[in-house]
Amino acid sequence: MPNQYSDRELVESLCNFADHLGRPPTASEVNDDSEYTVGLNTYARRFGSWNETLERCGLRVNEEKDYDETYMIKKLQDLYQRLRTVPTQADLADDDETPSLYPYQDTFGSWNDALRAAGLEPTKRHRISDDELVDELTTLADELGRPPRYEELSERDDTFSPIVYERAFGSFTDGLRAAGLPVNFRASVDRNYLIDQLQELANELGRVPKYDDLQEYPTYPSTWPYVCEFDSWNEALREAGFDINLQSSVSPEEIIAELQSVADELGQTPSVTEWREMDDTPGVTTIARHFGSWIAAIDAAGLERRDWSGENHPRYKHGEQLYYGPNWTEQREVAVQADGERCRRCGMSRDEHVVLFEQDLHVHHIRPLSDCLDAGLPYEEANDRSNLMTLCAECHPIVEENGLE
Q1: 389 lies in the same domain as 320
Q2: In 65, 79, 114, 217, which residue has its Cα 20 to 30 A from 49's Cα atom?
């Protein structure tokens, strides 16, 4: 079956499995089956719970003991006392004195919520297999109708943290690739919905929306779904019945010629910041739309990329690149979110940075990490939110050299 299912397809798959068994399947049977069904979490997330899924399919709800919440919490606390540690789902499956996992999920909504109801702190799982991580990503993609985003997994407690994927695959993006999910995906959003939202924003603004307006109105879709769906921002405006803000007829050949001319004038490949400060040059976003990224345009013009490696790299200190500590991945994301996913110096957005530089925003230590470590501070203090700021690839070395102007 495909990664994205309709309600009808999910119901049919479960009914076919029930016909095969000659009775309604149990939750554990669905979890173990791969021929007829798509995994328990997909059904539970789509329809609310396992029993609600059975009811949606017109199947008899499995006869579970009628446990009340007080009893279930007491049994969970008893198991905790016997194990002397917070129980895992695997512990529950191995214990005959405690109700199974599925009544807990149906009653409390999730296993972690059941633990909290019992006054226990959910534990972080270890040794999660790559296959399990991949299965979870495809399940989430089915639920969302598109590949999940990093920040969405960071905010949810019913799935694995994006940090788990980074440790397993090297990066969250590589985790998506391992699951066969597109990284630069076309937004799975209805065209009519995008047009309606654009027209609604125009009514709110009292004018034709500009490309950057959507950055300031987070309740509306971002600009990226429009560019993916309509191929350009101006084409999205036309489809919504608006006159375009600026007719840009510049060709890729003209952009290449302009890049080469500016490089000759500067004596080096122009940076995004330098380009933006010039008059009468095509916009950076126009270049990115033509070539896919700023870097790709630089390559197409036959220019050398600006070198941020080795001694030019912001992390390069005293002959080597620093190790940023065990909590760095979590703390850098905290900093990016706290800064509104923008460079604190020039205001470049996270989405724009990925398009222009093919990498995430940088996070800078205000008091240099090497100084913190030389002073005997632990990584936790060096990587405290108060010592971090979000910067783009160009502003980072500037701030490293001159501070935040």
Answers
A1: yes
A2: 79
